[in-house]
Specification:
This protein has about 180 residues and is mostly beta strands. It is built from one helix and 15 strands. The radius of gyration is 16 Å and the shape is globular.
């Protein structure tokens, strides 16, 4: 993900042993790891002002019950890739915080053009348990969350997968279904 000013590139690499977000300074070609945890971090997206990154991660996962069998939460090996939440962090690595509830699976965040909200795909943890998200047979929705207040609402409803929401305008969202 290219920063809005075109000077930095945020990318995911497992060069440190786990999928981490790295920042590449395009002028000096120096890299630095943004965060370090035994969890996986995926799909970094810059805020419009370039001060924040939103990303998906399996850090702070909750265990869930799947038809009587307990599915372990991480950190550790990324066993169920869709069991992720959304986090934001300053480009310096400071002020890391989770923005989605631990009771939902969330991924593929995109910033609104004003930087106040994130649009993302979400599903109930049971969808991971049944393999629905992994095998494209489950149900997911597109949601929007206010980054400061945590106010959340669904944009879509109904059965089937809804994935990869790009924000087209401040009030328009598209997605793949």
């Amino acid at each position: 993900a290219l920063s809005p000013d075109g000077k930095s590139l945020a990318f995911v690499s497992s060069r440190g042993g786990q999928a981490d977000i790295w920042i590449l300074d395009l002028a000096t070609m120096e890299t630095r790891r943004l965060l370090m945890a035994p969890s996986g971090e995926f799909r970094p997206r810059w805020s419009p002002d370039g001060e924040w990154l939103a990303f998906s991660s399996d850090r702070e996962p909750q265990s869930s019950s799947c038809a009587g069998a307990t599915v372990p939460g991480g950190p550790g090996p990324f066993i169920t890739p869709q069991y992720t939440g959304l986090f934001v962090v300053r480009r310096s690595g400071a002020e890391l915080r989770r923005v989605t509830s631990a009771t939902e699976v969330a991924a593929s965040a995109v910033w609104s053009s004003d930087g106040a909200r994130l649009v993302y795909q979400t599903a109930a943890p049971e969808q991971v348990c049944t393999g629905g998200l992994m095998f494209a047979t489950g149900t997911s929705q597109i949601a929007v969350i206010d980054v400061k207040t945590g106010a959340r609402s669904l944009i879509t409803d109904g059965e089937g997968l809804k994935l990869f929401p790009p924000v087209l305008e401040s009030s328009t969202t598209a997605y793949v279904t």
